[in-house]
């Protein structure tokens, strides 16, 4: 199978910032608790004309611009999300219209919670191998603020909205991203009911149990990726972890002795943005010049489902 590489990235972030102090006025919590336990200081929430669709389209447009690729060259579009604006049309179909993507290509949403973007990258690699058009648009986007139970201090402090996008290219001879991924069906640890199952669709989570799962899933993914690709830690230019809790990232950093210049945390600003978290990191790293042509990135995601996954992706 021919591999994909990232050509360009972009993001769409709501203007409204919600601080820990704002949340202190809603529930019994404190900036000290939130920052100390999670690393989060602010998060962005959609407001005043900003919607899932506006931030998603902004991320995708910027990724296309960054890649220098016109919409008519896109061979498939996948939006990883658990909070699309509408179930039908899918977010990807809405993007097809908004961006003027070709009509003879697959556009669909993918639901794998916080691992969604990596599941989507893997799916895109498979699709582009069978497509005459060799560029793909992969988006991770969430509007989690509308699924928050504002009386539950265990979850309402965690989540933010945002969208990140990548334009990828598939070429003969390029190495596969060698994705590893898995899932273990669990209804109670992390849950976001659909509209037909319960009156209100709020996120609920058994945080401590999910934390324990995460600190095992991350090294499992890193080890599997290195084994599958035959790479060593030194071969990796940058480690990108799902931003669910700074302490989960810190544990991985300590375990693998990852130097500060090879990993990144933006959870302080964004909180947990689920499927958007990894592409938001990629887009900021790209903008800051920390990754670019030739960079080899090991990305790891984990979350609801439960799901987990890793891939080794290069910048074209
Ligand atoms: O992205 C998908 C994957 N998600 C994750 O990986 C999230 C993983 N889990 C976590 O990040 C952490 O479990 C949380 C940040 C969600 C919670 O941190 P924790 O250290 O596991 O806290 P806890 O739930 O065990 O609660 C400890 C205490 C409890 O009080 P008592 O029972 O010890 O008196 C909670 O009621 O902290 C209390 N607490 C809070 N206190 C102040 C829970 N939430 C808050 C809060 N402010 N917001």
Describe the overall structure.
Helix 3 crosses helix 4 and helix 7 (207-229) runs parallel beside helix 8. It is globular and about 55 Å long. The longest helix is centred in the last third of the chain and has 23 residues, at 207-229. It contains ten helices and 13 strands. The model has no long low-confidence stretch (mean pLDDT 97). The chain is 33% helix and 24% strand. With 316 residues, it is an alpha/beta fold. The chain starts with a strand and ends with a strand. The strands form three sheets. Strands 1, 4, 5, 6, 7, 8, 11, 12 and 13 form a nine-stranded mixed beta sheet that branches. The structure holds oxa(dethia)-CoA.
Structure described in brief:
By secondary structure, this protein is of the alpha/beta class. 33% of the residues lie in helices and 24% in strands.
How many alpha or pi helices?
A: 10
- Coarse structural class: alpha/beta
The whole-number mean of residue pLDDT values reads 97
The largest pleated sheet is described as: 9 strands, mixed
Query: Compute the gyration radius: what is it?
Result: 18 Å
Alpha-carbon distance between the two ends = 17 Å
What is the helix fraction of residues, given as a range? 25-40%
Shape: globular
Number of strand segments: 13
The unique ligands bound to this protein are: oxa(dethia)-CoA
Provide the succession of SSEs.
Answer: EEHHEHEHEHEHEEEEHEHHHEE
**In what range is the share of β-strand residues?**
15-25%
Low-pLDDT residue spans: none
